[in-house]
Structure formats: structure tokens, C-alpha cells
């Protein structure tokens, strides 16, 4: 005791020392770190930094459920990665020392998409419409962001043909769409699609990486539909059968198949049509055509000995359209011949014979001329021999018999079937009309095979012929006749012909054959007398001798000829005829006349009738010429002078020559000889003036300028003809038109060309030279001066000066006044009086006509000055460009010419003033923020504004003036810096995107209210602004609802769109899904995964757990759909998240207090007793359940949610439904123990598929001798139907001590 006192004294000092040592502290902003999931192991993750108020040496460390991911340098606080991170397994972790640190993993694209389908095969109809979904695949990628977005593609289609390249298309949701038509028979019956799923890529090891799945192959089988008619295996069927074939004989077998190869329906056969009904039938099933009636080839002669049978093949079942599927084909059956007929004769001609038995004959008649040549057939004989048999059976021999067989023959001697029979002359000498007028033969037709024959008698009548011709006594007769004898004058009547034939054949007719002279003479056809036919044509001068052919013809048209020579005797009946005309040209005093008068007499040469004499009849100038009377040569007696000839005669001398013959009486004729004495050009033209002075106004095309005149003393037009020409500068502007005033006198009119006018401003005077000359080699020329003076006319319109029309700029809103421009115009005319006129005003805004809005803004004076009229009215926002259309007008312009210039445009650009403030566009959109889902850099709201100004005056920038958070309790907290605004523009619309800058507290409830300002950016005017208030409604974590599912997270993810659609239908809200995760196997009962989500209305409010539950239960269709998708529990996040961190802290504090107050042994004993008690309690409950359940049998009715118990009525007491468990649990406990199943067997897993069960192994003492209660219960259970015992012994569940 004495030794304890010093300790008691020192105890307060120790306590003071301990109380003075203060703990270190971490910085207040050190709350979380972000790490990429692909951070390599061993690399620096972050640093732990703390400050100690006592400046003691610090030791760093990390503890917690996921602290094993990191290693800490205890001295420096450097934290390195100790185990690989996986975002898809753990999205965040918490490390604890004295400061809770949240480690947030950033996802990396380290996972490839995985296809969820197991059976990649399907069957589709070949009539599947284009655009139909063929198959749907699903691939999931556990990554987030773009790395988790799956894109499907078809890599390859087998068969790999061009036609199949675009046959299928896969949509973004994995649905495969048919893009073309299918055909089982014409295309492929099987397709294989190689599919691949890739994500949209993301960062992996600091590189952008796209992950793709392993390709899968989708097999598509096309189902054949009965849409095609059957088809015969051959395109043509034919067969041969002999006539008189026995009934039932098989002729041909046809076969048809179903073209739908995948259906292959049974086919039956019928005869639907036949050219000979009843002759044939067909087997209904086998398609064999058999003889069913008498077959006679001779009945088929008109059908080409063929029977045509139409066979129809019909499928047993209807096609896809509900119609009978059938096909027909015509079959040709040729009937062969049997020799059962003999040849017979018919009175007809091929091919117009009918060959009916009643038409057969044995008597025939014909006729032939006597002495007909050999091989000439008997005429009027129509005989056909016919044997209806075919081929050798129808072959027969033709021969002749009878009294006159030697005179005739038969053709042909051999024939097949039918033939025209001809009897021919064989010996023409025996065929003589004078000996025998009628002859007779017998034609015999003998069948070559059967030797049967037929006989026909032919009676032949001979026709007499004309076998003599007339003859003349002489071959040539010489005759004569005076020319110009009268018509009917008898030339001769003594020429006759004789013919020994009598009767018709002996009657002779005379005629002249066509030839030279047949139009002058004629012969009497009966007597043969030759007379003049046309006396006017009997002219010796045309032809002196004629040779005619006279013909004598008998009644049989036999004829002979003789020649008649008729000579014409001459008389003086033709006067002399002068050849040609005589028009002689000679030049005076140079040339002489020498011409022979050519004359002829057509009478007989060498007689006085044709001898001629020439004489010159008296005339005014005949004494100047002489004429030879015999030769007719005409010459002049001396030189000829043109001037001595009367000018009225034009230099022409006409002489008359008389020509007469010496016949009796004498005949004569006169001819005129014209002698043209040509003039010589020996005179020069003379102008009536040496100088001409003319005046003409400018701009007058085609006017007469003046007239010049000249004359020539020569009398002939050739020599006194005058032509004018013009020369000198500017002569090409004129045309000189000459005209004759009289003999040797001419004038020339000087005209401007119709398209040419003179211009005073270019040339005022023109000096020209006019020439007058005689054409010809010896022509003479005279000249005169022509002076043209151009008179000025006001003809040129004014011209606007382009430099004065350059655009100007005027500011709006009364910024400028007075004159702003001046339009200048020019006119080259001396008397011009020009003024400027305003023609039009064009008002445009951004290139669009705005009407007459700006018409009064500006005015234009007559002198061209441009003034501002209404300065205050000028508004750029209404009109940004004013175009003044002006022109210049000359008041003194000649009325014939244009007085106005071309229109010019003076553009006046209205410059902008910053006179319009920005304005926000109304937006009824409500912006909602879920802090848990939004991340920095994400847009959360937007505003839009416009400014009617342009350029910098209309450019808008947005800024946030003030941002506050207003909680649901009404308190206001500044939120400056939480948001920023990004300005963007499209055309004149400016958008301010509100972007989150930092993470938001997900526990706060209220509204983020910010004041957004829009201001323009004028370069010189004052800045104009506008403001608006924006409210962002927050949805905090208290509205986060957790849905538990009995399926895995992969299945939930695969059906997330269906789940989301069902929830939207029930709640009419926007569903934001936060997370989908598996539930730890230790804590789950029926649920295997959960889905966290928010349900937000458009006004910013959200659904609570209770409201969501009511809505789901109220919509039975949605409830049923969700149950089918695996929904079992609806709960809040707070009620379902683990309280392990708080419990751990409480345990640590409790243990510390227990160490100071209670012995460690007592604490351990208490904990052990408590654990044993709970284990035994669970064992008792398990025993109770085991007694109620047969071994190996699963209860048919569902259990009460969260337990393994069933109520007595096998019903669900939660929803009071009779036989169906909806599987919903509404949890309100905040402890993880509430999620642990009450089934004591959950801690002792049994795999019935293994030979030896797995059991918990716990250290236990020696086995008790008494039987363990649970084992006794389990051993009493029934075995399964296979006799296998499902009982086992687990020492860990010993309940003996109970």
C-alpha cells in the first residue's frame, strides 16, 4: 500500500499529459479522390496530408472494407495502388483513418460487348414482308459512357453474293430487318449472318480504344410456302400407238412435281381435254395414259394422224392463296397405220378432195387435139386415186388396159396415199381425128401390199385442128401512085391469096401489118383491094417509096405474108424555103457585109421544080448592096456610115430578098436581111456642174443628200450609157443611184445607206468626188466635186457618271442630315439641258424587299444632290439597304431620239446603331437536376436570346450574375461558382448553355436560382443588357428508389428498356436509372440484383417510395409486366444501404468502453453465448420447416416474400391474391440484417447435384450420445422418386443442447 501512494500522486500528472495531446486533422476539402480504373498497380494513387496541432510525428494508414486496394507509406502518407481496380465491380470505395475519404473510380473502356443470346438461329417465311424484324440480338457492355454504348453491324452474309449484300439490316437496338424479298426456290433457302457488336470507344491506358465482341453467327432458314404451281418434268410429251390397239394398253407416262421443293405436295392427274374424247384415259396417281376406246387412224387424217390430249396435274392441297395449284400440258399421240383399205378413184382435184366413200367413181371422160405431142395430158379429165392407208400400206401401182392402150400412157405409175392421175398421149400419129374421133382406155390401181385393185374407164374425145395456111402467088408486088392522091384512090385490086382448107379454116382475111406507111394505105379485109387511106399524108417530099407487108389469115388463125413496094410520083407542090434568119452586125466604116442566102426546094432534085433564082427587092438602102441571082451572095457596095442612118432605125437596115423556083406554075418566097451598123464610142460624158454643194442632218439614215447630172453625145446606148461612182473620205456612207433621163442623159442621186447616218460630233464636213464614165475598153470618164455639210441635231442622251454612283453609308435614327451624295451626268450635245430624276426607290432588309418603307427617307434634286428627308425615320432594323434608281434627262433632245440615260443605282447602306437591347426568348421548359447523376462539364439548363441589331451591336454574351440555393425550408445559400454559362450562336439566335462546374450535394433539397444576363457588344455605342431568372429544381437522394429483381444484373440490363417503359407508363414520369448491380449472396433472399432510379415529373417534383408503390399497384398491367421481368422488392435507398460503417464505429467505441469497465473475458463469453443462442434458434426454425416439406419436392405455391414459409391457404398474405405471389417486399428497416433470409439453411449451402454435400465446418466437442433433433427430423423425411436420400448430417446445426 505504501508503494501505491506515489502512483496516486503521479496519476493526475499523467491525466493532464494525456488530455493535452490533441489529434491531427485532415484538410476540410480532402473528401474524395478520383482514380482511373486502369491505373497500374504500384503507381501513385494519392497522398494523405494531415496537420498535428502539437507538431507530433504523424503515422498514416488506411482501413475499411476496401482498404486492401491501397498501400500507404506510414511516414510520408503516399498512397499507391496495391490491387487492380475494376469500375464494373466496385464503383467507389471508402478508406478510413480519422478522415473518411471517398475514392471514385473513373470508368475506362476495358470491356468488350458480350452477346446475351444463346440460340442464334431462326426460321422465316419466304413471304416475309420487307421491313419485318427477322431476329433480335442483344449485346451488353458493362462499361459506361460511350464505351458502354453498343453498335451492331453485319460483317458478312452467306451466301456472299452481290444480291445479298443489302438483304438484311441491323438496327441500333439489335433488331435485324429484312430489306429485300426472299424466295426458297429462286434464291437461297438458308442464310448465315456474321454479327459483331462494338462499343463507341473510350479511353484505355490513355488511348482511345474501340472494343468489339467475338463475332457470332446467326442462322436463318427460309421456310418454303406453297405458292408455286406444279411443273411437268418434261416440256413436251409425245407417243405413238398403232390403230386398232387393244384397250388398256399403256401409251405414255407423264410426271409432274411440286415446284415448292420444301413442301413437295402429292400430285394427281386428269385428262381435262382431248381432240378424240374417250380414246384414252390416265391413271389418277401414276400418270400413265392408256387406250380406253377404238383407235382408227383414218379418222385422224385431217388432224395429221395425231390425237392431242390435255393432261392436268393438280396438287393435293391448296396453295398459300387458298387456290388449287395445277398445271396443264398438251400431249401428242401419233396413231400409226394398218393396211386395211384398197385404192379407189375420185372425180376431183387435189387438194380439194373429200374422199368420202360415196364419191368413188369408175367412169371418166376427157378430150385431146388430134396429133397432140407425146406426154400431152388429156384435158378435162379430173381423176384422183386415193388409198387412205399410210406409207407402204398406202402405196399402189397405176397401169392402163383397153383397146387404145398403145396410143396413151398413165402418170404416175406408182403413188402413195393420193395422187392426181393423168392420161398422156403416147403415140401422136395414132391420135388422128380423120381416122377415129373417140378413143377409150382403162386405168387400173393395184395395192402394192394386199394386191387389191380398182378399175376406172376413161373415154377420150379427139378435137380437129387447122393444119393448112393461106399462100400468095408472088412474094413482091411493085405499085405506084401520084403524091397527094385523094383518099380512097385505088392502088391495086389484083392481089389474092389461096387456102386449101374449107369451112372456117378456109375463110381468108387480109390485113396490113404495122410498119412504115400503114397510116397512108389500107386493104379491104375481104377482097384484098389496096387504097389510099389518107391523101394528105401522101407526100413524095417526105418519103418517095413505101414498103408494106400484106398478111392473109384463115379461120384457124394460120397466116402468110407478101411485100408491096409503092412508089410516089412527084408534082411541083413545094415553094422554096429559106434556112435560118439573117441579122448581121458590122461596125461602121470598119467591117463589110458578106452573107449567102441559104434556100432549098423540097421537090424532086434535078428538075425545074427544085431549081431556084435570087433577086433583091428595091428599098431605101438597097442601092448600097448587091446580090448574086444564082448563089444568093449578098455584099455591100461601099463603106457603111452609122450617122447616115435614120436615128429612129437604131442603126438597122432591112433588105428583102426574093427566092423563086422554075416549075410550072412557079413558086416563090421572100426573106428579110437585117444589117445592124454598130456605133463607135467617140464622145466623152459631161457634168452639168463642176462643183456640187449638199447639206444633210445628222442621225437621219437613208435620206437623199443631192442629185448630179451628166450627158453623152453618142447615139447608141452602148456608147452613151453613163455610170456614176463616188470616192473620197466617208464615201462608204453613201450610195449613188444612177438613172437614165433620155438618150445619152443620166442623173445620179446621192443617198445615205438605210442603216447609216452621219454624226455631227464625229465629222462635220465631207469632200467627195463623183465620176461619170462610159463602160468598155475605150470608155471615157469625167469628174466633179461634191461637198457635204453635216448639220448638228440634239441626238445623244446624257450619261450618268459611274463614279458618282458609288455606294454611301448613312447611320440610322437621326444621326445624319442634309446632303449625303451628288449624282453627276454628262451630255456631248452643245444645246443640252440636263436634269437628274429619281425613278424608283428599292427598300431591302437582308436582301428581301420590304416594300415602300423607305421611300420618304431620301430625295434627289434636279442638279443631282441627294438629301436626307426623314433622318429620324431611318431604321436599319426595318431596312438595311436603300437603292435609289436615278436617270439623267436632256430637256432639249430631238423628239426622235432618246432623251433619258440608262438607269443608275445609288446604293445607300444604313449603318447600325445599338438601339435594340437583347431580349430573352420565352421558354416553358422546366429544368430538373439530379445531383447524383450530373457531373461537372454537363449541361443542366439553357437560355436563348436575340438582338435585332447587327454585327457587334447584335452579338450577345451571357453571364451568370448571381446563383443561390433556396432550400425547401426557405433558407438561401450562395451558389456562386457552381455553374458557368457557355455562349453559342446559330444565325441570329444566341444560346447560353448552363454547365455544371463542380459536384453538387445530393442530399440538399430545394431550387438553384440564378440570374442570367445577356448583353450586346457594340463597338462604340453604350452596352444594352437584359436579365432573366432561371430556376433549377433539384431531386435529392431521398427520392432515390431501389427496385430489386429476382434475375441477375445482366438480365435486368438486357430488359432495362422494357422495365423503363413499364415504369413510365405507370408513373407518367421521366425515369432516370442510376445503377444496376448484383446483390451480395450473403445478404440476398429472393432478390439477386437491384436497380436504383429517380422518378421525376416535368415540374421538378419526384415520386417518393410510397407514391411509387401506390402507382404500380394501381396499374395492374404494368404490375404484371414488371413481375414477368423479375421485380420482387420496391424500397428506398436509405432502407436498403448497409449501416456497416456506423455499426463498426459503434462496436469500436463499445469495445473501448468495455476494456475500461469490464474484463475482456466476460465480454468474449457474452458474445459467444449470444451467437450460440441465435444459431440454435435458426436450427429450430429449420426443423419446423423440414417437417412440413417432403424431401426433394419444391412447394407449388409461392412463399411469403422474404421467408421460406407458406400460409395455410397457399396464398400471398401481402396482396390477398388466391394463388399467385406478386413477389413485392416493402422494406423499411435500416439494418442489413433485414435482408438476411430467416431460413437457417441459408448459411449452410447444399448442392444436391454433387455426390457429397458441402457443409460448414465448425470446431465442436465430442459428439453427444443422444440423437440430434434436427437430424432426427431430417432423417424422417421421404426420399425422392429415384430412391436417392437427400438427408445429411451437419454437426454445425447440432440442436441437442436446446
Automatic annotation (TrEMBL):
Q: How does it sit in the membrane?
A: Single-pass type I membrane protein
The organism sits in which domain of life?
A: Eukaryota
Question: Is Nucleus tagged as a keyword?
Answer: no
| Any one Pfam family match given in the protein's UniProt record, by short name | Cadherin
Among SUPFAM superfamilies, the record links this protein to: Cadherin-like (SSF49313)
> Key word Transmembrane helix present in the record?
yes
PROSITE patterns given for it? CADHERIN_1, CADHERIN_2
Show the GO cellular component annotation of the record.
anchoring junction; brush border membrane; microvillus membrane
Q: Name one GO biological process term.
A: cell-cell adhesion mediated by cadherin
Keywords of the record, alphabetical order, are: Calcium, Cell adhesion, Cell junction, Cell membrane, Cell projection, Differentiation, Membrane, Phosphoprotein, Repeat, Signal, Transmembrane, Transmembrane helix
Q: Where in the cell is it found?
A: Apical cell membrane; Cell junction; Cell projection, Microvillus membrane
Q: Where is the Cadherin domain?
A: 27-115, 116-232, 233-345, 360-472, 473-578, 578-687, 688-800, 802-920, 922-1045
Write the signal peptide boundaries: 1-20
Extract the CDD domains matched here: Cadherin_repeat (cd11304)
Q: Name one GO molecular function term.
A: calcium ion binding
Q: Where are the transmembrane segments?
A: 1143-1169
* Stretches with biased composition (Basic and acidic residues): 1247-1259
Q: Residues annotated as region Disordered?
A: 1244-1298
Give the multimer and partner information. Part of the IMAC/intermicrovillar adhesion complex/intermicrovillar tip-link complex composed of ANKS4B, MYO7B, USH1C, CDHR2 and CDHR5. Interacts with MAST2. Interacts (via cytoplasmic domain) with USH1C and MYO7B; required for proper localization of CDHR2 to microvilli tips and its function in brush border differentiation.
Function, as annotated, reads: Intermicrovillar adhesion molecule that forms, via its extracellular domain, calcium-dependent heterophilic complexes with CDHR5 on adjacent microvilli. Thereby, controls the packing of microvilli at the apical membrane of epithelial cells. Through its cytoplasmic domain, interacts with microvillus cytoplasmic proteins to form the intermicrovillar adhesion complex/IMAC. This complex plays a central role in microvilli and epithelial brush border differentiation. May also play a role in cell-cell adhesion and contact inhibition in epithelial cells.
* Protein's UniProt name: Cadherin-related family member 2
Organism whose genome encodes this protein: Jaculus jaculus (Lesser Egyptian jerboa)
Amino acid at each position: 500500500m505504501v508503494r501505491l501512494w506515489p502512483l496516486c500522486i503521479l496519476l493526475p500528472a499523467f491525466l493532464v499529459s494525456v488530455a493535452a495531446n490533441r489529434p491531427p486533422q485532415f484538410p476540410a476539402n480532402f473528401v474524395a479522390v478520383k482514380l482511373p480504373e486502369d491505373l497500374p498497380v504500384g503507381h501513385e494513387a494519392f497522398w494523405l496530408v494531415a496537420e498535428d496541432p502539437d507538431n507530433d510525428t504523424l503515422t498514416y494508414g488506411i482501413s475499411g472494407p476496401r482498404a486492401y486496394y491501397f498501400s500507404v507509406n506510414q511516414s510520408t502518407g503516399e498512397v499507391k495502388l496495391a490491387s487492380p481496380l475494376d469500375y464494373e465491380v466496385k464503383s467507389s470505395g471508402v478508406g478510413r483513418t480519422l478522415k473518411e475519404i471517398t475514392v471514385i473510380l473513373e470508368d475506362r473502356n476495358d470491356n468488350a460487348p458480350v452477346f446475351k443470346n444463346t440460340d442464334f438461329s431462326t426460321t422465316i417465311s419466304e413471304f416475309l414482308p420487307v421491313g419485318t424484324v427477322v431476329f433480335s440480338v442483344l449485346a451488353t457492355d458493362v462499361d459506361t459512357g460511350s464505351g458502354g454504348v453498343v453498335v451492331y453491324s453485319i460483317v458478312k452474309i452467306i451466301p456472299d453474293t452481290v444480291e445479298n449484300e443489302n438483304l438484311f439490316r441491323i438496327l441500333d437496338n439489335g433488331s435485324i430487318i429484312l430489306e429485300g424479298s426472299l424466295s426458297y426456290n429462286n434464291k437461297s433457302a438458308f442464310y448465315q449472318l456474321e454479327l459483331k457488336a462494338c462499343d463507341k470507344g473510350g479511353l484505355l491506358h490513355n488511348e482511345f480504344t474501340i472494343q468489339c465482341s467475338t463475332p457470332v453467327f446467326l442462322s436463318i432458314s427460309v421456310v418454303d410456302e406453297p405458292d408455286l404451281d406444279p411443273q411437268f418434268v418434261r416440256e413436251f410429251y409425245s407417243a405413238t400407238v398403232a390403230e386398232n390397239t387393244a384397250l388398256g394398253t399403256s401409251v405414255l407416262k407423264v410426271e409432274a412435281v411440286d415446284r415448292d421443293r420444301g413442301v413437295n405436295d402429292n400430285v394427281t392427274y386428269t385428262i381435262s381435254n382431248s381432240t378424240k374424247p374417250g380414246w384414252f384415259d390416265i391413271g389418277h396417281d401414276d400418270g400413265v395414259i392408256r387406250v380406253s376406246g377404238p383407235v382408227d387412224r383414218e379418222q385422224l387424217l385431217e388432224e395429221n394422224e395425231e390425237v392431242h390430249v390435255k393432261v392436268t396435274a393438280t396438287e393435293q392441297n391448296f396453295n398459300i392463296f387458298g387456290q388449287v395449284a395445277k398445271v396443264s400440258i398438251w400431249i401428242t399421240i401419233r396413231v400409226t397405220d394398218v393396211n386395211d383399205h384398197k385404192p379407189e378413184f375420185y372425180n376431183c382435184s387435189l387438194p380439194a378432195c373429200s374422199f368420202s366413200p360415196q364419191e368413188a367413181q369408175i367412169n371418166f371422160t376427157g378430150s385431146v387435139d388430134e396429133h397432140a405431142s407425146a406426154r400431152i395430158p388429156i384435158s378435162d379429165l379430173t381423176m384422183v386415186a386415193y388409198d387412205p392407208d399410210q406409207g407402204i400400206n398406202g402405196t399402189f401401182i397405176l397401169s392402163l388396159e383397153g383397146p387404145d392402150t398403145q396410143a396413151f400412157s398413165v402418170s404416175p405409175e406408182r403413188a402413195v396415199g393420193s395422187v392426181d392421175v393423168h392420161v398422156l398421149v403416147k403415140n401422136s400419129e395414132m391420135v388422128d381425128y380423120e381416122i377415129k374421133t373417140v378413143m377409150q382406155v382403162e386405168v387400173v390401181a393395184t395395192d402394192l401390199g394386199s394386191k387389191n385393185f380398182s378399175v376406172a374407164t376413161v373415154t377420150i374425145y379427139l378435137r380437129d385442128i387447122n393444119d393448112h395456111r393461106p399462100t400468095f402467088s408472088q412474094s413482091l408486088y411493085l405499085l405506084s401512085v401520084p403524091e397527094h392522091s385523094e383518099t380512097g384512090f385505088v392502088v391495086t385490086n389484083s392481089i389474092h391469096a389461096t387456102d386449101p382448107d374449107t369451112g372456117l379454116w378456109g375463110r381468108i382475111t387480109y390485113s396490113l401489118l404495122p410498119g412504115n406507111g400503114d397510116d397512108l394505105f389500107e386493104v379491104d379485109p375481104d377482097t384484098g383491094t389496096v387504097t389510099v387511106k389518107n391523101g394528105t399524108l401522101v407526100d413524095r417530099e417526105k418519103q418517095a417509096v413505101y414498103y408494106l407487108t400484106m398478111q392473109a389469115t384463115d379461120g384457124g388463125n394460120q397466116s402468110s405474108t407478101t411485100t408491096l413496094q409503092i412508089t410516089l410520083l412527084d408534082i411541083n407542090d413545094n415553094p422554096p424555103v429559106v434556112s435560118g434568119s439573117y441579122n448581121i452586125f458590122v461596125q461602121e466604116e470598119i467591117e463589110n457585109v458578106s452573107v449567102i442566102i441559104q434556100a432549098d426546094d423540097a421537090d424532086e432534085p434535078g428538075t425545074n421544080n427544085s431549081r431556084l433564082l435570087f433577086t433583091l427587092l428595091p428599098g431605101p438602102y438597097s442601092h448600097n448592096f448587091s446580090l448574086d441571082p444564082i448563089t444568093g451572095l449578098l455584099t455591100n457596095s461601099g463603106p457603111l456610115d452609122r450617122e447616115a442612118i435614120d436615128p429612129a432605125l437604131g442603126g438597122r437596115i432591112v433588105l428583102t430578098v426574093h427566092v423563086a423556083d422554075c416549075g410550072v406554075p412557079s413558086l416563090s418566097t421572100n426573106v428579110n436581111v437585117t444589117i445592124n451598123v454598130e456605133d463607135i464610142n467617140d464622145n466623152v460624158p459631161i457634168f452639168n456642174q463642176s462643183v456640187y454643194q449638199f447639206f444633210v442632218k445628222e442621225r437621219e439614215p437613208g435620206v437623199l443628200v443631192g442629185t448630179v447630172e451628166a450627158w453623152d453625145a453618142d447615139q447608141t446606148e452602148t456608147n452613151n450609157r453613163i455610170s456614176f461612182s463616188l470616192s473620197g473620205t466617208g464615201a462608204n456612207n453613201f450610195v449613188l443611184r444612177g438613172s437614165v433621163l433620155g438618150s445619152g442623159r443620166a442623173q445620179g442621186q446621192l443617198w445615205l445607206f438605210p442603216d447609216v447616218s452621219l454624226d455631227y460630233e464625229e465629222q462635220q464636213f465631207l469632200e467627195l468626188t463623183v465620176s461619170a464614165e462610159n463602160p468598155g475598153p475605150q470608155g471615157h470618164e469625167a469628174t466633179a466635186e461634191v461637198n457635204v455639210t453635216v448639220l448638228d441635231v440634239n441626238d445623244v442622251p446624257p450619261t450618268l457618271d459611274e463614279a458618282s454612283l458609288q455606294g454611301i453609308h448613312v447611320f440610322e435614327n437621326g444621326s445624319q442630315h442634309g446632303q449625303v451624295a451628288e449624282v453627276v451626268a454628262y451630255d456631248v450635245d452643245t444645246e443640252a439641258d440636263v436634269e437628274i430624276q429619281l425613278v424608283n426607290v428599292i427598300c431591302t432588309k437582308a436582301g428581301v424587299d420590304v416594300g415602300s418603307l423607305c421611300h420618304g427617307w431620301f430625295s434627289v434634286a434636279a442638279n443631282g444632290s441627294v438629301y436626307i428627308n426623314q433622318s429620324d425615320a431611318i431604321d436599319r432594323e426595318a431596312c438595311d439597304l436603300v437603292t435609289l434608281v436615278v436617270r439623267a434627262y436632256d430637256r432639249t433632245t430631238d423628239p426622235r431620239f432618246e432623251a433619258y440615260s440608262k438607269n443608275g443605282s445609288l446604293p445607300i447602306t444604313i449603318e447600325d446603331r445599338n438601339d435594340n437591347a437583347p431580349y430573352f426568348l420565352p421558354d416553358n421548359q422546366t429544368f430538373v437536376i439530379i445531383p447524383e447523376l450530373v457531373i461537372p462539364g454537363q449541361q443542366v439548363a439553357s437560355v436563348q436570346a436575340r438582338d435585332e441589331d447587327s454585327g457587334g451591336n447584335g452579338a450577345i454574351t451571357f453571364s451568370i450574375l448571381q446563383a443561390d440555393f433556396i432550400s425547401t425550408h426557405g433558407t438561401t445559400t450562395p451558389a456562386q461558382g457552381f455553374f458557368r454559362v457557355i455562349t453559342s450562336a446559330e444565325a441570329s439566335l444566341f444560346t447560353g448553355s448552363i454547365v455544371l462546374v463542380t459536384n453538387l450535394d445530393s442530399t440538399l433539397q430545394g431550387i438553384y436560382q440564378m440570374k442570367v444576363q445577356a448583353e450586346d457588344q457594340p463597338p462604340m455605342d453604350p452596352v444594352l443588357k437584359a436579365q432573366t431568372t432561371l430556376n433549377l429544381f433539384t431531386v435529392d437522394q431521398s427520392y432515390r428508389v431501389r427496385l430489386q429483381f429476382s434475375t441477375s444484373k445482366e438480365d435486368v440490363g438486357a430488359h432495362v428498356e422494357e422495365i423503363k417503359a413499364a415504369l413510365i407508363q405507370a408513373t407518367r414520369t421521366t425515369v432516370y436509372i442510376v445503377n444496376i448491380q448484383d446483390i451480395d449472396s450473403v445478404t440476398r433472399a429472393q432478390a439477386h440484383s437491384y436497380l436504383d432510379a429517380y422518378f421525376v415529373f416535368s415540374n421538378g417534383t419526384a415520386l417518393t417510395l410510397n407514391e411509387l408503390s401506390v402507382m404500380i399497384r394501381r396499374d395492374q398491367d404494368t404490375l404484371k409486366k414488371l413481375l414477368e421481368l423479375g421485380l420482387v422488392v420496391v424500397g428506398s435507398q436509405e432502407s436498403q444501404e448497409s449501416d456497416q460503417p456506423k455499426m463498426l464505429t459503434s462496436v469500436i467505441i463499445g469495445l473501448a468502453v468495455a476494456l475500461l469497465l469490464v474484463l475482456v473475458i466476460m465480454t468474449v463469453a457474452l458474445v459467444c453465448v449470444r451467437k450460440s443462442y441465435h444459431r440454435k434458434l435458426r436450427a429450430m426454425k429449420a426443423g419446423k420447416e423440414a417437417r412440413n416439406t417432403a424431401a426433394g419436392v419444391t412447394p407449388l405455391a409461392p412463399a411469403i416474400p422474404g421467408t421460406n414459409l407458406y400460409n395455410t391457404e397457399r396464398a400471398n398474405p401481402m396482396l390477398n391474391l388466391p394463388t399467385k405471389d406478386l413477389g413485392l417486399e416493402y422494406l423499411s428497416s435500416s439494418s442489413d440484417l433485414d435482408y438476411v433470409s430467416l431460413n437457417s439453411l441459408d448459411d449452410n449451402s447444399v448442392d444436391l447435384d454433387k455426390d457429397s454435400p458441402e457443409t460448414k465446418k465448425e470446431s465442436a466437442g465430442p459428439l453427444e450420445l443422444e440423437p440430434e433433433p434436427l437430424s432426427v427430423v431430417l432423417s424422417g423425411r421421404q426420399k425422392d422418386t429415384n430412391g436417392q436420400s437427400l438427408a445429411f448430417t451437419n454437426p454445425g446445426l447440432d440442436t441437442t443442447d436446446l
